[in-house]
Amino acid sequence: MKRLMINVASSSKELANVRNMVLCALLIAIKLVIGLYSIAVTPYLKISFSFLASAVIGMMFGPVVGAACGGITDILGYMIKPMGPFYIAFTFIAVISGSLYGFLLYKKKITLTRCIITEIIMMVFINLILNTYFSSVLYGKGFMAIIYPRFIKNLCQLPVNIAMLYTVLTFVNKITKSNNLSV
Description:
GO terms for molecular function: transmembrane transporter activity. By secondary structure, the chain is mainly alpha-helical. It has helices spanning about 1-10, 20-35, 50-80, 90-105, 110-140, 145-180, and strands spanning about 40, 45.
């Protein structure tokens, strides 16, 4: 618990540095661009790889900055390309996602096991539980009616997401270490 509070305190100080603020802005822009190319299968089922930018923000800057960037990205993403009605619950989910990536990856060694655990937590808690629940509320569909296709989609996408997450985080880790950036 003490280490958790230290990470939160450290994360909240990350944006005091202008370079970190600029890096966050660039990563937000990258996430928005990647999000433009998501594939909407149905109104409540889409495939996207914008989670990678959220994971990088969480790994580099921690849970506080990850949460803030998650909320900002969700609102900006809706302004750029609205997909359905604006629903504050999805912004809340984006804030939780950013903070979870921060809690799970900030100041931690990037290993395949850590990436597997992170992606499983994100897929179960965020994608299957929270997103499915709020999608069912928003669209008036039964929770059980939309969780099955979402479960199959997430199960198929899990190995791809894990491989991409591990590859990207390892690459970013090498770049940040070679350029003396914070991580």
